[in-house]
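re: that chain from earlier
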Amino acid sequence: MNRTDRLYALVEELRACAPRRRRARELALLYEVSVRTIERDIGALQQAGVPIYADAGRSGGYTVDKSLTLPPLNFTPAEAVALAVALGRVSVGPFEGAGRSAVQKIVAAMSERNVVAARDLADRVRLLGPLAAPETVAVPAVIEQAIVARRMLRICYLDRDGNLTERDVEPVVFMAGPSGWYLVAWCRVRNAARCFRVDRIQQAEVTGVTAPQRAFEDIVPCVPDLVARTPVL
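^ sequence. v structure.
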């Protein structure tokens, strides 16, 4: 068993035993490696974000929080490549970093044979971009955080006339348009829904105030007829 397969097997073994603990010596015997190798493997998994916890003492050992892990998803090579292609077609946008991280986790959970097949398949796909790609602006992480945590933002916004204003806004949705990404939010200065082009947001700060939950219908008046579809999950 190579290390990649052993790391995957370790996680599944701990998931199957949880909430019971497995000691390093038991795992070493199971996978026919040294205790030190198991300790290094566990450390690598923890650094990668796997929720493995260790208890010291005679009754201690390793366990994994089952509520924070998934059973084997068994992605096929074609499914993994399809996700990578979909991500690759969007050069910038909200949660771009999270998307790359998700693909890496999927590949890490696949068997070595399927990883080889997926990479072979990916080598037969090409994404052609325009010779002169339009300038795009990445969505700042702070705005992503506000959407995820449903927190109000304090922004400095440069409007189309060159006026710079400071506003407290309640993020509602991200919207893709012909000029890039927009943040659709309820503006407390105007007391109405507004579309803010991300590349015109000069500064943004997440406040500690929870934004009220608003339905998309509340902001429809400010949304153009060409509205992006909701992602299918």
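The chain has three domains: 3-68, 77-122, 141-222.
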